[in-house]
Amino acid sequence: MPGARCVFTLANGLPRDLIKGLHEYSHLWVIYEFHANTDKGVTRNGNCVKGKVRVPRLDGDAIGALATRTPHRPTPIGLSLGKIISVDVANGAVTLGGCDVVDGTPVLDLKPYVPFCDAVVGAVAPGWVNDGRPGLSLEETKEAQTEGGASLAVTEIVSSETADALVATAYLTSVKRRRDERLFKGVSTATSSSGTGGKGKGKHNETESWDGLTPDEVKKLKREFKKKRQAGLCFPDALYETPYEFLVFVKQVLKLDMRTHRERNAPSDEKKFDTYRVVLCDVEVEYCVTETERETIVTLRGAVAVSPLPAPGVTSGPERPRNTKGEPHSRTVL
Fold first, then answer.
1. How is 154-199 classified by DSSP, letter by letter?
2. Residues 171, 32 share a domain
3. Of 147, 176, 203, at which residue does a domain stop?
4. Residue 253 sits in a domain of what CATH number?
5. pLDDT tens digits along 218-246
6. Spatial contact of 263 and 315, defined as CB atoms under 8 Å apart
7. pTM of the full predicted structure?
8. Residue numbers of the domain that contains 308
9. Are 234 and 226 in contact (CB under 8 A)?
């Protein structure tokens, strides 16, 4: 998800110079633990490892676990590539875009992406990896991608000025709550849209890139950062400097059908839920899905700011959740 943001913060005691020089790279490999697995610590078949998993891009068909990027692995180690947005040596923080992690993910290592050895010329993968359909040649996959034919892709996102405004307001509210909590506790806490969070001390070092500026330019930048801090729209409380950037990320998330295989393929009169919700940056976004034989349309209904969940993957509880109108809905936490 290109609009996703995450901040990795070095643990207390580690030298901040560990990340010095990363700003010269464009991308970074992140090696981490799948700590929020639903089956972590659960043994099956007399401690035997589960050999196959059901893949959403194969529409629920099973395939060997090690032939996928599933978190349900013999050793729950994850690998994700992120684009470097900023490197804050003073606070030991690295901000990445498009990295596939969740809040609180334990990071084992960060490695710079090196094009001469990491980019493999002529590398191939099954068609379903790129497009969501098995058995495609490379040419067919490229053509299908151009046409937007992925099986999990949504045909269209429908929204309104009211719904967009509700998302923007909810984001500003969530950032303000996070900022107030940090100030009351006296601790700087990094936040994440679908990435990891962490703790660190001190203010964001905006002076790091001010070398060579005139005194007047420095004063102007200081005033701008002060306004952002007062509004709560800067590190460490916010990953997006404007509500519009967050709204773009929300719509990128909704462009993929996150429903379960059973829910996606059930007859219309047997659908379990009328509306769906996804939690991003402590904002619960509500939407509905309309399907025909040829298209899947997602309608954004609105959003509200919610309190942070106690742990990744925790949802509304065992009972079937309902929205404010009393209709059943499904909730997803990213």
1. -SEEE--HHHHHHHHHHHHHHHHHHHHHHHHHT-EE---SSS---E
2. no
3. 147
4. 3.30.2310
5. 788 778 777 766 666 777 788 888 899 99
6. no
7. 0.71
8. 156-190+242-333
9. no
